[in-house]
Amino acid sequence: MKCSCKSVCRSFSLFLLLLVPAVFGLNLDGTLLLSFKYSLLSDPLSVLDNWDYNDVSPCSWTGVTCAQIVGGGMPPDMFSVISLTLPNSKLLGIVPEDLGFIPHLRTLDLSGNFLNGTLPNSLFNASELEVLSLANNVISGGIPEFFAGPKSLRLLNLSDNALAGNIPKSITSLQNLTVVSLRSNYLTGPVPGGIRSFEVLDLSSNLLNGSLPLEFGGQNLRYLNLSSNKLSGSVPQEFAAKIPANATVDLSFNDLSGEIPESISLSNQKTEAYAGNIDLCGKPLKKLCSIPSTLSAPPNVTTNTSSPAIAAIPKTIGSTPLPNSPGTTPSSGQIPPQHGLKPAAVAGIAVAPLAGIAVLAALFLYIYQKKKKKANAAAKETSTATINAHEFKKDSAPAAVKETRNLPTWPCLSVITNGEETSEATGSDSDENSSNYVTDHTQLENQKHEQVKNERSLVMVDGETELELETLFKASAYVLGSSGDSIVYKAVLQDGTAFAVRRIGESGVERMKEFEGQVKAIAKLRHPNIVRVRGFYWGDDEKLVIYDYVSNGSLANVGYRKIGSSPYHLPLAIRIKIAKGVARGLAYIHDKKNVHGNIKPSNILLTPDMEPIISDFGLHWLIHGKHSRKSDGSARHFGSKRSTDDLYEQSVTGSPFIAPAGFVGCTSPYHAPESLNNLKPSPKWDVYSFGILLLELLTGKVFSDRELSQWTVGLVAEDPNQVLRMADVAIRGDVVGREEAMVAWFKLGFSCASLVPQKRPCMKDALHVLEKIPCCSN
């Protein structure tokens, strides 16, 4: 009944609008534009205030461009609407069918708003439309077919939405279409073939599957991005043949395999263009393809009767039928004169395999002897170092130690991380097999004994853990991650006990007593959802902080797939469990009159049973000093995983994504806006971060302050269906039957992430609300 009433009301409103031209003289274009204005739920910037039905023409309205159309059936003094451009205007609503009925509309740009619903078919039938950009909205559903098609369409940008389904095959029939960006959606199915007119094609960060098309086309391509999909199989030669040599191609992070075709267009790409395809080989990758075996039988010789010696037979001989072989007549056992071989040649054929075996045997023996010598030398060195460790002098340190002067008190932990700086959380590694193994406890021990005792000190502050300095320095170490000011390692003791150790190269704390006081203050906070601090090491050139090791990675890398899609492939119950655990930990921190100040996914560690553990509390104090207000580099830096480039043009220059509009510079979206003013830290900062985190768990996307300004608790209550449509696609099945709980979680998220600090609840109240909302079992 409600739907029927809404339909009647909308039809009646449109009927009234159609009466406007007769009464006030507003032309049809203006009437259709007014229907768009009245369909919007919110216009906070008042960009449409001058759209007035009393006007005769809409040509002076904001965002509207008109032109005189020759032969358009209009009076000579009348102009038609040819363009509507309202990007980044914070408009909330749907894209109505009426916009597609504007007769001479050529450009429609409504990107960077909060438009939802589905794509209207009318836009894809607008005969004169040339530019259609609806990027950076929350539009869902599928892409309509281009049957009647806007034949003049040149640019189509639908990136960063929630579109699903297959890419319509009819898109390739648009001969004038040159720029297409559909990245960061949920599109499935194959990559369309028959691409001829496209110059820019970005289909990255979707769910496209199948193999690369043989009849791809692409003769005019300048930029092709198919990264971060589920494409499999080999890269066909036919696919590569049509792509121009100067085109930029990105096939990274798929499941492609086999050899990259030897074409200029693919060989000219950077190696990053093929990253994430572990079974790809060939140029430009450093991974060479395996050489096919030469022990194959030549023509006319069956594999079950030939011996390995056949590999040494020249092709001219192998092409001649052998006596008594299939297809030949019996003979006396002598080689016919016309095909005779000299005795030396026969001897060479017989001896060749034996010579090859002898060479291989010699090679294996050489390798064995080398390994044996190295093993003996290493054993001897370890024995000597253990007995005479205290007698080692600085000038007698092993060369490997001398080469790590940048880590004077923990030299074995100098590693190369591909030139990149990571931001993994304390005490976590998501994939131990990919960690950098950097253990050499003998070298570590030797250099440690070069320092006098009063220059170093290991202090355990938890009252439980017993750990000797020598034991720590004999531990094996794995790099977990790094930030601008510190590196995190997993240290495994000889008894198998694991700790997370954060190495701080430079600290704003100059005295050990002050550093010890701050570590002890942090260690006093004991809560199931806060990582435990066990102790610290104080040295002249570096400091180490020892934490519990949490083995299941962080929230930043659990199921992380790509930009513009759900980073958390977790059931709804697990997401809420994580949110509750974070809320409990923050409420405890605030109850103890402290502020974390850097809540973000990489600082939320996860146990094997998906219980969240908050890490890096107090790290800012230890690096910069307790009273410093210097910005935390790791907290402020907003890294490459979520690019802040804007608009599709960045794709043309090589950026694979378009980030949500509203992110500014390198500011992290998890930090409260007021924190940029260098104020004294407030618990409201953590509440804001928790709100962003909760919304990300619910929607699979990171909200910017621009998006947050469009949502209030009241608006959520007014249109709960719209809120439910924002739920992450991966959990929409879990939402069925829990709609009321979902709306309540959204209300809490937007309340905590309010741009006005005074409107945010305290963390204790937020936790109380969260625990009252009923949820499914874990």
UniProtKB/TrEMBL annotation:
Pfam families attached to this UniProt entry: LRR_1 (PF00560), LRR_8 (PF13855), LRRNT_2 (PF08263), Pkinase (PF00069)
| Keyword entries, A-Z | Glycoprotein, Kinase, Leucine-rich repeat, Membrane, Phosphoprotein, Receptor, Repeat, Signal, Transferase, Transmembrane, Transmembrane helix
Q: Name one GO molecular function term.
A: protein kinase activity
Compartments annotated for it: namely: Membrane
Record-stated family: Belongs to the RLP family.
- The record places domain Protein kinase at 474-773
Taking the first listed entry, what is the main subcellular location of this protein, grouped into a coarse class?
Answer: membrane
Answer whether the UniProt record assigns the keyword Nucleotidyltransferase to this protein.
Answer: no
| Name of this protein | LRR receptor-like serine/threonine-protein kinase
Per the UniProt entry, the signal peptide is 1-25
